[in-house]
Design brief:
The complex is a heterodimer of chains A (119) and B (108). In chain A, 0% of the residues lie in helices and 51% in strands. Chain A has strands spanning 3-7, 10-12, 18-25, 34-39, 45-51, 58-60, 68-73, 78-83, 92-99, 106-109, 113-117. Chain A has 119 residues and is mainly β. Chain A is globular, with a radius of gyration of 13 Å. The relative contact order of chain A is 0.31. In chain A, strands 2, 4, 5, 6, 9, 10 and 11 form a 7-stranded mixed beta sheet that branches. Chain A has a 4-stranded antiparallel beta sheet with strand order 1-3-8-7, with no helix packed on it. By secondary structure, chain B is mainly beta. Chain B has strands spanning 4-7, 10-13, 19-25, 34-39, 46-50, 54-55, 63-68, 71-76, 86-91, 98-99, 103-107. The radius of gyration of chain B is 13 Å and the shape is globular. The N and C termini of chain B lie far apart (35 Å). Classes of the chains: A mainly beta (119), B mainly beta (108). Chain A binds chain B through residues 43-47, 59, 61-62, 95, 100, 103-112, and chain B through 33, 35, 37, 43-47, 50, 56, 88, 90, 92, 95-102.
Chain lengths: 119, 108
Amino acid sequence: QVHLVESGGGLVKPGGSLRLSCEASGFTFNDYYMSWIRQAPGKGLEWVAFISNSIDYANYADSVKGRFTISRDNANNSLYLHMNNLRPEDTAVYYCARDKSYDLYFDYWGQGSLVTVSS
Amino acid sequence: EIVLTQSPGTLSLSPGEAASLSCRASRSVSSNYLAWYQQRPGQAPKLLIYHASSRATGIPDRFSGSGSGTDFTLSISRLEPEDFAVYFCQQYGSSPRTFGQGTKLEIK
């Protein structure tokens, strides 16, 4: 079955950088768009970024544009989120999720990885 | 962007009762592109409903979605203990995709 496992979260100081990873299994990874979605403590969900299956298109929420970069390695069934210039408001659980198709709903989610930005 | 407002914030019911959760959009959701997710404590969100009324694979038929335009509803006909969780709606009719703030369904 579909399995998504995030890793790489942790505590980082404001202005710092972090890279999240998501390992996918149970489906043909390079057939699907993939997204990152985050959930700040006690808050709702916010879509962060998505990338096309062929890696020729990516899109970002305005709140992270210019600071975060989504990427993927189809040979290794992995999705990444490179986060630079982190701010306290980026503190959240970050989920990777499989897009049903371009800009639609998310049919599978990982368990999430907590990123805490604090001095 | 489309803002989704869910109500109530918290709903207290007993197992066996029926639940009705609301999701209202700030403007019409194109093609009724609205999904519902369930999130149990400490778990990832799980897709329940897409296209406003289509159940995802493996979702029991006690879950149903309805609505169109700006007003959508998730109904649960007979609450089971495992249904007590937080429920989010999400629109994908226009970019960026946005979520509601969630409704917590708790045991009375």
